[in-house]
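We treat protein structure as text, and this decision shapes the records that our systems exchange. The tokens are whole numbers drawn from a learned vocabulary of local backbone shapes. Below, we set out a record of this kind in full and without editing:
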Amino acid sequence: MLRTLFSFFVVMLILCTLVYPFALNTVAKFIFPYQSSGSLVDKEGRPTLDISKAIGSKLLGQDFNKPYFLHSRASVSNYNTSDTNESSVSSGGFNYAMSNPALKERVQKDLQKFLDENPQITKEQIPLDLLSASGSGLDPHISLQAALVQIPRISQSSKITKEELEKIIQENTESKFLGIFGEEKVNVLAVNIAIVKAMKKE
């Protein structure tokens, strides 16, 4: 009996930790090569399987802090996905209660930072998602309102007209799922790639 149980354990261990993952990865690489490699894009915004040419993933947020870039929403992990100098490499949120002083302090700090970077904007004009962190801390999207409110700063720094910036944002806005579920959302990386292209034309 013990021998049978041990044999079953070994077989299941091999199946679940070696055979199944390898088979699943092989099938995914064959059927969905782009998606299974992380949905990476190059500096032109084109899908790429070459990690040396990739500047980011359409599915993972990044910390864009240059004034001519569209800025992402707050991240409690500081988009810490590969920097081994950080104390930890993680994703996720702190799930602080609304009454937690640490949450109030973090929001107030982010609020003041945004107002300093965007002097044309008042506190009342700031969309909620620019001050609230996503569940993963790695959200690649922001709301359409959160993108549009940054146009004055980006225009001033990049010398791109507000009209052209609005067009870029609209072109990289994803509609509601099936037209009714969720909200319109803007891919920050895609917009910033388009901004760099537009700046080169200036």
